[in-house]
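Recap slide: PTS system glucitol/sorbitol-specific transporter subunit IIC, sequence and predicted structure.
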Amino acid sequence: MDFVVEAAKGFIYLFQTGGKTFISWMTTIVPLVLMLLVAMNALIGLIGAEKINKLAAKSASNPLLRYMVLPFLGSFMLANPMVHSLGRFMPEYYKPSYFASAAFFCHTSNGVFPHINAAELFIWLGIAQGVQQLGLDTTPLAIRYLLVGLVANFFCGWITDFITGWVSKQQNVTLSKKTDIKSI
């Protein structure tokens, strides 16, 4: 009987913990993302959608800008998960690749820019603690992680381009490689 009681307590505890996590999100990450959305839309309104669309079109035309520079700037300025919202300016063909590159960048930059992905900072801190226990400075490791991440994230986006092309052909779907300014 004790086993059934403990199982029932554990079952309820699981949902209580889920509820506490949900409430913590409502007071931390949800308002942050909402304010970032407001700020981004206000900035777009101030600069002008036409200029933003032209910048996006130029960024989309160059793989280095599309998978290295834009995800870096977006991650640094908007953090995770808002960096993904910049993908809305990408042509349909490049959206999966941009998402892949931006998602990976949110992980590889935590050592230098912890604000980018604070939810996963514990991973970097765990690695850093081991390095510190060896008596080493974590800064060179963080810089290397960032630089290797930039290159790896570029390749992640570029390879996803090839996969998108392959799947599009397989599914007989044509995705635009041009920014549709009217639909944004």
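The chain has a mean pLDDT of 83.
The CA atoms of residues 47 and 147 lie 31 Å apart.
(End of recap.)
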